[in-house]
Design a protein that fits this description.
Blueprint: H1 14-24, E1 31-32, H2 49-60, H3 74-85, H4 90-94, E2 97-102, H5 104-120, E3 126-130, H6 134-142, E4 147-151, E5 153-154, E6 159-160, H7 162-170, E7 177-181, H8 194-206, E8 210-215, H9 229-236, E9 241-246, E10 259-264, H10 268-285, H11 292-302, H12 304-334, E11 350-352, H13 357-367, E12 369-370, E13 376-378, H14 387-398
Parallel strand pairs: 1-12, 3-4, 3-7, 7-8, 8-9
Antiparallel strand pairs: 2-10, 5-6, 9-10, 11-13
Helix pairs in contact: 2-11, 2-12, 3-11, 5-6, 5-10, 7-8, 8-9, 11-12, 12-14, 13-14
The structure holds 4'-deoxy-4'-aminopyridoxal-5'-phosphate (PMP).
4'-deoxy-4'-aminopyridoxal-5'-phosphate (PMP) binds at residues 36, 104-106, 133, 181, 186, 214, 216, 246, 248, 254, 259.
Length: 400
């Protein structure tokens, strides 16, 4: 009798399941707008020039595969911290941010969740926006939290119901982790405005809550500096909080698993203690992070030429997505669809299209256009060859 005999198969992950379905589809018109990966106009995940340059250098002068320290590679941690908080910022200069290398944004969320649950507040729950990236709930539940939702998306107003959001956050128990998207909200594409960061910070501070900012898309909304605005506003407001940052999207290093967890503390002494606890968490979970992605990211961030090239590449990806949003909207309007103007008001990789589950199923079955059942479509997978087919298909299932 096998020790696994009683184990049932895990439920399908909806996004990866959709990709499997897409891969089996033989129709030449097929378009995968399901998965959250940026593609170039040829439908390929790009290898950024800046990344390729460092990769080549590493291949020419290879390093041995030694272990990194538990806290990760320190030049990477420093560079990642400066990118998020600002190179000359007070939190960086004062040393009150504890930064530890992570397995991208997901790993950063896990390290933060684990640290807070085991070392700070074992009974605290977590609340996230309704809706949110599905893995937020799975990950925090796995880490031992009960998870809940604060109101966020306002279907009627095609935006955010900020008053309802604040009311729900205000009602949370002190100590609750409040998960926030820094920019490019997944799945809705609607972000808080800079004017809303202050009132939100006030509620978080008054109620003694534990903000956790997920910064998975820095550079994909308005710019590398602008997209870190919520984090910087919270730091200026004197909050203590966690930030998960990632180079999956903005360096197109999805498989590189490169990111960082940052804990913003009261002072440098506290940050030094927190850093040892984060490192201990790494040690218990997987011992230490891989060095390749961290070496690539740190080299790009600290070499002025590579950095300038990379910033241009990030702007290029951001502008291509914005261009595709405009092209899709234009093509939809040409088809007589008049209620989707929000496509160009949303930012980041995704559009919450408002299409019903039935419409999404028809898109998939009749037109070979794959998006999530909740209506989420990946704008970063549109290109000049597929955008018209996507628009006519949406028009066919949706015309009112
Ligand atoms: N947070 C959000 C909101 C995401 O959409 C994603 C990836 N789709 C992640 C975190 C994690 O991505 P990664 O682990 O590759 O950084």
């Amino acid at each position: 009798m096998s020790i696994f005999a009683g184990l049932e198969a895990a439920p399908n992950d909806p996004i990866f399941h959709l990709t499997d379905q897409f891969n089996q589809d033989t129709d030449p018109r097929k378009v995968n707008l399901g998965v959250g990966v940026y593609q170039d106009d040829n439908g390929k995940v790009p290898l950024l020039k800046s990344v390729e340059t460092v990769q080549r250098r590493m291949a020419e002068d290879p390093d041995p595969w030694t272990y990194l320290p538990m806290r990760g590679w320190e030049p990477f941690n420093e560079a990642a911290q400066k990118l998020v908080f600002g190179a000359d910022s007070e939190p960086v200069a004062s040393g009150r941010v504890a930064t530890v290398q992570s397995l991208s944004g997901t790993g950063a969320l896990l390290l933060g969740a684990d640290l807070y649950h085991h070392q700070v507040a074992p009974d605290a729950g977590m609340i996230a926006s309704g809706p949110t990236w599905a893995n937020h709930h799975s990950l925090f539940r796995y880490a031992g939290y009960e998870t809940g939702t604060y109101r966020y998306y306002d279907d009627a107003g095609q935006g955010i119901d900020f008053e309802a959001m604040l009311a729900d956050i205000r009602a949370a128990d002190p100590g609750t982790v409040v998960l926030l998207h820094a920019c490019c909200h997944n799945p809705t594409g609607y972000d808080l405005s800079p004017e809303q960061w202050g009132p939100l910070a006030e509620v978080l501070a008054d109620r003694g809550l534990a903000p956790f900012v997920d910064l998975a898309y820095e550079g994909f909304s308005h710019g590398l500096e602008e997209d870190a605005g919520m984090v910087r506003a919270f730091a200026s407001a004197g909050l203590s909080f966690l930030v998960a940052s990632s180079f999956s999207k903005n360096m197109a290093m999805y498989g590189g698993r490169t990111g960082a967890i940052h804990a913003v503390c009261a002072d440098a002494d506290e940050a030094a203690r927190v850093k040892t606890q984060l490192a201990r968490t790494v040690r218990s979970l997987y011992s230490n992070a891989p060095f390749q992605g961290a070496t690539i990211a740190a080299t790009i961030l600290t070499d002025p030429d590579l950095r300038a090239g990379w910033e241009g590449e990030v702007a290029g990806m951001r502008m291509r997505i914005a261009g595709m949003r405009a092209a899709l909207l234009g093509a939809l309007e040409a088809e007589g669809v008049e209620d989707m103007g929000f496509i160009t008001r949303q930012t980041g990789m995704f559009s919450f299209s408002g299409l019903s589950r039935d419409e999404m199923v028809r898109l998939r079955n009749e037109f070979h256009v794959y998006g999530l059942d909740n209506g989420r479509l990946c704008m970063a997978a549109l290109n000049s060859r597929n955008v018209d087919h996507v628009a006519t298909s949406i028009a066919a299932v949706h015309k009112r």
